[in-house]
């Protein structure tokens, strides 16, 4: 729900009209979309994980030392209740580590294990709401030449032609098989979100713009100007886990200083 820099500035967006009472999902922060992203399935929009109460995982399986050393972290766990099993009859253990490095880097590591007697399939996303100065002052780099599915045109497949993505109207796209870091450059606040991911081939980019914002009950009419969702995701090719198998998906976000006159950001040289 909240991630701040060393100056106490909020880096994640949360709507002033967000509803904090279950079963309504909260509009903002980083909702976990599992076991379904969007409406591409039979479950509720974005699945049920984002609407559930998680518990502290007191004895999590070990992660590599670089995922622990020098970081503050919390381990959470989600298991299906009898209610979820009625409409998604698959037993799983979902472990989530959220950690903060000394440089302010936010890391989210998801481990999903099939403890069922049969395989199951899921799609996934970290639905990251970033706080921006003004959406018209933002550009996204790292998606050049990639194919994407455009949800505004019945999921038609297109190829990104620009050297960066800028915003002048509603955008709702799934960029496919993105191998590189992605940068969200906010000229107004002179800062850049650098996003790296592992196990998350796709990148979702969404801003509802003015008309759709007015139709979203838990989003202020003008709040679209101050938010942008850029998600590490698994959409095009869902994950199938056999009994006993585990999947891991990692998202890392670091905020670095940038300026309006900066050259193309060399994403490969940004040190995490």
UniProtKB/TrEMBL annotation:
GO terms for molecular function: carbohydrate binding; glucose-6-phosphate 1-epimerase activity. SUPFAM superfamilies: Galactose mutarotase-like. The gene is LOC110790338. One of its GO terms (biological process) is carbohydrate metabolic process. Transmembrane segments: none annotated. Its EC number is 5.1.3.15. The keyword Isomerase applies. Belongs to the glucose-6-phosphate 1-epimerase family. Pfam families: Aldose_epim. It comes from Spinacia oleracea (Spinach). This is glucose-6-phosphate 1-epimerase. Substrate binds at residues 27, 45, 50. The keyword ATP-binding does not apply. Keywords: Isomerase. It comes from the Eukaryota. It catalyses: alpha-D-glucose 6-phosphate = beta-D-glucose 6-phosphate. InterPro entries: Aldose_1/G6P_1-epimerase, G6P_1-epimerase, Gal_mutarotase_sf_dom, GH-type_carb-bd. It is an enzyme of class 5 (isomerase). GO terms for cellular component: cytoplasm.
């Amino acid at each position: 729900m909240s991630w701040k820099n060393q100056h106490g500035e909020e880096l994640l967006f949360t709507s002033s009209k967000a509803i904090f009472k279950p079963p309504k999902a909260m509009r903002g922060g980083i909702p976990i979309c599992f076991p379904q992203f969007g409406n591409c399935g039979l479950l509720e929009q974005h699945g049920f994980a984002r609407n559930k109460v998680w518990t502290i995982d007191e004895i999590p399986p070990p992660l590599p030392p670089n995922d622990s050393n020098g970081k503050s972290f919390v381990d959470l766990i989600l298991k299906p209740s009898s209610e979820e099993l009625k409409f998604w009859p698959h037993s799983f253990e979902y472990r989530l580590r959220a950690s903060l490095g000394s440089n302010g880097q936010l890391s989210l590591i998801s481990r999903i294990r099939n403890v069922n007697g049969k395989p199951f399939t899921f799609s996934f996303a970290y639905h990251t709401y970033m706080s921006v100065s003004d959406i018209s002052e933002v550009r996204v780099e790292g998606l050049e030449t990639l194919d994407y599915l455009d949800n505004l045109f019945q999921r038609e497949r297109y190829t990104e032609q620009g050297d960066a993505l800028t915003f002048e109207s509603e955008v709702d796209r799934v960029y496919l098989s993105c191998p590189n870091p992605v940068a969200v450059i906010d000229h107004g606040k002179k800062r850049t979100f650098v996003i790296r991911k592992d196990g998350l081939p796709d990148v979702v980019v969404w801003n509802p713009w003015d008309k759709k914002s007015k139709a979203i009950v838990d989003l202020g009419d003008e709040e679209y100007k101050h938010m942008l969702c850029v998600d590490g995701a698994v959409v095009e090719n869902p994950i199938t886990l056999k009994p006993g198998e585990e999947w891991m998906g990692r998202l890392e976000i670091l905020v670095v200083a940038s300026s309006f006159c900066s050259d193309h950001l060399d994403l490969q040289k940004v040190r995490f």
